[in-house]
Write a structure and sequence with these properties.
heterodimer, A: alpha/beta, four-stranded antiparallel β-sheet, B: mainly alpha, 2 domains, 9 helices
């Protein structure tokens, strides 16, 4: 499919679906490598425009070129650049052309192509990719418009559907729930039981969410001290845990203790001391750190891993249910882009420009007396033909596809050829 | 003469539509408070015209007092939105503003001529403050419902649109506390003024409406006490709902059938 253009949008990519982590790692580019790659691609004349999107889960090279031939050249380029076997690259990757390439980018920006459907990070990464390409001077009319449309689609999908509303990770679900109990987490106290990997991850997430007063207790005090030093927290001795409960708004259990660390009687005592102020208990340990019986205590919000995983699964289903609506928005925006893109072909532009000039000619002729009209018509025809001749010749003879499209776009804009 | 009243109702309906929309779509939030403000200005114009023709605050009919109640509730909503920047309560509160304004417009608004007993600023303040107190309790009622809804969402881990748009429990709780405190203070002043006024014009002070006002104060006083004694949360919210049922009873049944002296027909 060529869409009537001499140049065609194409994408060559590797993502989590087809490429192993090893291959993805080899084709992942830093911002500096992206700049370097873009300069080389354009310098060698492989494509007339290019943008590279590179994230943990995907590396995609968008370009404006000549279909499969450019696809082959790009694959060869990446194989040489990253020192990877071409066959392996081809098997692990994918190619899309024309409208399909555009649709792919829109899906990526909308989060529909992500592992966690609707995730928002990828939209920022697409925007960043466009910004780097603009700095490097590797985008012109087409890819610039394509990426801007994709970013707009991504924003619309996230604001007009619920695809990004429901959190998916256990930590973000827990933090959101706690946030809806306490309002402002920055003034609250979190007591973290354990100092392992889960504790570290949760501590980071909680601090990112604005929580400031973090206390860590671990049976082996040195581990608690090491984690506290890393994240900026206070250490509580293991013996103090029961006493600390009364001042803790959020308690998170992550230890490997075979017995519950937090007993119902401890929580009851703490709640009396807290004068019934809500307490949020999150048990991420297996076997449980928190006695499940605490759920019955007034104003205690207690969640365990199973419960939160159910919430995560339900949230995933809710996001999936939003996909058709998101796709509706996507197709609407894609249709708008393709309409604009389709109009950029040289032939329809020349036809449109001719019609426009003839309309002007007829309008002006209509204003002169009928007797003079026929006499003036050959002159008017000749002016229209002369005006059209040079732009048509130059457009058709332009060999640089990107420049040709830029000019077509300029003509369409200056003569207002896209008006309905 | 009802044109302004119905215009206000329409503006409230528009505000409700925008408020619901803002609950589903986070964009375009600003419209609802503006339409409520426009409704309040329009309704105030009507209340002012009524007051001019009556020569007093238009509360001597059930319709008039309902309209005044709706207006004060609308004002309370606006203060809440502007002060707390919490728009999540709008869709639930505006219907009450609308409902009271509609009832106010439908019920008869031509009172029997004012007697000497129902003239004067003491009486006017007594009634106006009582209506303001009831508006504050109505606000507390709505906030308590929202508290219970949000509490349920959190306990069930339902992190959907309602969950994300409704304020946190702590915020709703604080709003509720402020509302109830204002209601208690204003109603106490209103009762004191009423008693002072009644001593001048009535032969005795025993009256069902007064009794219910005292029960109302007792219920909400208990609520604040419980809130400080470790019962904050769903129990306080439930008590606020009970308190509002007493208010509704006092406002309707007691007004119409039980009280000998507090008659608004």
């Amino acid at each position: 499919m060529n869409d009537g253009h001499d140049a065609q949008i194409l994408v060559l990519g590797w993502n989590f679906r087809g490429a192993s982590g090893d291959v993805r790692e080899r084709v992942a580019f830093t911002a500096e490598e992206v700049r370097d790659g873009l300069r080389r691609l354009l310098g060698r004349g492989l494509v007339s425009e290019s943008v590279i999107v590179s994230t943990c889960h995907r590396s995609e090279i968008y370009g404006l070129g000549e279909g499969e031939r450019t696809g082959d050249e790009l694959a060869r380029f990446v194989s040489e650049w990253r020192g990877l076997d071409r066959g392996l690259l081809e098997r692990a990757g994918f190619r899309r052309f024309g409208a399909e390439a555009a649709r792919h980018l829109f899906r990526v920006a909308a989060g529909l192509d992500s592992m966690a459907i609707g995730e928002s990070e990828v939209l920022g990464q697409v925007r960043e990719a466009l910004s780097i390409a603009r700095e490097t001077g590797s985008t012109h009319a087409i890819l610039h418009r394509l990426f801007e449309s994709a970013v707009r689609t991504g924003k619309r999908v996230r604001t007009e559907t619920e695809i990004a509303v429901h959190p998916l990770s256990i930590a973000s679900i827990a933090v959101e729930l706690a946030d809806k109990v306490f309002g402002d987490l920055s003034e609250r106290t979190l007591l973290l039981l354990g100092a392992g990997e889960t504790a570290t991850l949760f501590a980071r997430h909680a601090l990112e969410s604005g929580l400031r007063d973090l206390r860590i207790a671990n049976r082996t005090r040195e581990h608690a001290e090491a984690l506290a030093a890393r994240v900026g927290a206070r250490v509580v001795t293991w013996e103090e845990v029961a006493g600390e409960l009364s001042s803790a708004d959020v308690v998170v259990g992550t230890t490997a203790s075979p017995q519950p660390v937090v007993r119902r009687s401890d929580v009851e005592t703490a709640m009396r001391q807290r004068r019934g102020k809500p307490m949020f208990l999150l048990d991420l340990a297996m076997p449980p750190d928190v006695d499940p019986e605490v759920k019955g205590i007034y104003n205690v919000f207690a969640y365990d891993l199973d419960g939160l995983e159910e919430v995560a699964a339900e949230n995933r289903r809710r996001r999936v249910r939003e996909v058709p609506r998101a796709e509706g928005i996507l197709e609407e925006e894609l249709g708008r882009f393709l309409f604009w893109y389709g109009n950029l072909s040289v032939i329809p532009t020349v036809t449109d420009l001719k019609r426009r000039l003839e309309e002007i000619r007829d309008a002006e002729l209509g204003r002169v007396p009928a007797a003079d009209r026929e006499r003036l018509r050959p002159l008017a025809d000749s002016i229209v033909a002369k005006l059209l001749h040079e732009p048509m010749r130059r457009l058709k003879s332009e060999t640089d596809a990107g420049r040709k499209l830029d000019r077509v776009e300029a003509i369409r804009h200056l003569f207002d050829l896209d008006k309905e | 003469m009802h044109l302004l009243e119905w215009t206000a109702v329409l503006l409230y309906a528009g505000a409700e539509a925008l408020a619901i929309r803002s609950l589903v779509r986070p964009r375009g939030l600003g419209g609802a408070p503006i339409l409520v403000a426009a409704g309040l200005v329009t309704q105030f114009a009507q209340l002012f015209i009524n007051a001019r023709s009556l020569g007093s605050v238009p509360y001597r009919t059930l319709g008039g007092s309902m309209a005044l109640f709706g207006w004060m509730l609308g004002l309370a909503y606006l203060v809440l939105v502007v002060r707390h920047r919490e728009r999540g309560v709008g869709p639930f509160l505006i219907p009450f503003v609308m409902a009271f304004s509609i009832v106010g417009a439908l019920l008869p608004s031509h009172p029997s001529p004012a007697t000497s007993a129902t003239r004067g600023s003491l009486f006017a303040f007594h009634v106006t403050l009582a209506i303001l107190a009831y508006a504050a309790f109505a606000l507390s009622f709505v906030l308590s419902l929202l508290y219970l809804i949000q509490n349920r969402q959190i306990r069930r881990g339902r992190t959907g649109v309602l969950f994300s748009r409704l304020p946190a429990l702590d915020v709703i709780g604080r709003m509720n506390r402020t509302s109830v405190t204002i209601g208690i203070l204003v109603l106490s002043v209103s009762v004191a003024l009423g008693v002072t006024w009644a001593r001048r014009v009535w032969t005795g002070l025993i009256d069902a409406k007064l009794l219910f006002a005292l029960i109302t104060l007792l219920v909400y006083g208990l609520l604040l006490w419980m809130d400080r004694r470790g019962w904050e949360g769903p129990r306080v919210a439930l008590l606020s709902i009970v308190g509002f049922i007493v208010v509704l009873f006092s406002y309707t049944v007691v007004n119409l059938y039980l009280s000998q002296s507090h008659v608004f027909r």
